[in-house]
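Two entries, shown back to back:
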Amino acid sequence: MEKIRWLGCGILIGIANVIPGVSGGTMAVILNIYDPLILAFHRGRLRSSLPFLLLVGGGTALGVLLFSRSITYLIRHYEMATQYAFMGLVAGSIPFLWRKARHKELKKKNWVPFCLALLLMLGLLVINKTAAPDSGAFAPDSMAYPVLAGWLFLSALASTIAMILPGISGSFVLLMLGGYFVTMEAIATVDLSVLLPVAAGILAGGAIGIKVVGLMIIEHPQAMY
């Protein structure tokens, strides 16, 4: 039963990762597997945590594959309703993060990372307003493949690091950088010329993000949340 739960959690995290504005990290917090998932890569725990990681990872990949075509269709044909659904999911996740942060008495110094993170998200909002992904700034069809592959690698790297952090949507970062629709369509059509650089970026971003976030959970959990 526990293994089925891990697989189901992975599927929900995968679906969350596909939705712009919804954080896969936050979904993991809601499902109460975020800390075990990040810490599984630290201090010799990898071997003992392998079944857990394989089931959650496999479920995540399955969730992305199952939902990639659906979410692209919904955004393109029912954008307003879909975006409001996203906002509801984001707003509903706030109490879970709040309880994590207030598990112990709140230290005043931890308002600093909160304010910095808030300013970061407001900055992303401004950038997204002034350089929207559909403004024509990113045109995959007009790019030479080496340039496109490099751009997709860097976009996937940045969005994966964002995805690991609770409260930040990796798919929103990918959308802001202009690589969201081309990646979703490549997943739906199994276009390896796009998927390979994206996969490389995901692996690099995951290695960096998990290491940093894992250290934060161990050393400064309240500041991180």
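entry 2 starts here
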Amino acid sequence: MKIEWIRAPFLLLALLLSDVFAAAQTSVAGSVYGAFNGATSGNGTQQSPANQAGGMIEVRHISNAILGFEATYSFNRADETYSKEIYPPTNSNCTGSCSPETQTLRVPANAHEITFDWTPSLHFANLRPFGVLGIGLLLNAPSGRPTLTLTGSSAALPDYVTAVNTNTSTKAVYVYGVGLDWGLLPHFGLRIQYRGNLYSAPNLSSLYSSTDSFAHTAEPMAGVYFNF
């Protein structure tokens, strides 16, 4: 009897480890997210990406707690706003001491992102917490007519729209994150995760140079997955 009591904790530990390190799975998932961006500055320019909604598709294979990999594709609107102070101002009516003007360029754009990620995970009952660490490409493509606005202290300064050349920007993106799979049925469940993207700020117009600063996008997301 005493030997059985000594063996019991080791048997329980073995059962737990077999559940944690086993249960390989291949899954496809779809999620929706919010893309929340921070402003950057550099080269005399202030760059402010818009906060937008998006969607992501994942194909993931997990062999064990260490060996897990996925490929993802995501899409969201990614309008960029560039602003710069202009002095002396362009207003020809200005004489003597004048306040600087602020020139603001808004470029409608779409963001396409493809990543390949390492996804270590654990498995307990119907829960699987996981991590995300990866790299990929972020393509920002202008999708409409840019708007150039000029503002200043003088009432004579108008707002106007003019033709501005735009560029498509392709940057490397570095991804990190954490999440949780919650199995509801044998092959179906909910996936909740947070992903952070780090990349160099895109330059979408020949009118401005990029800030050349590292930008960060926070993406809280929720979706569903299906196991094979």
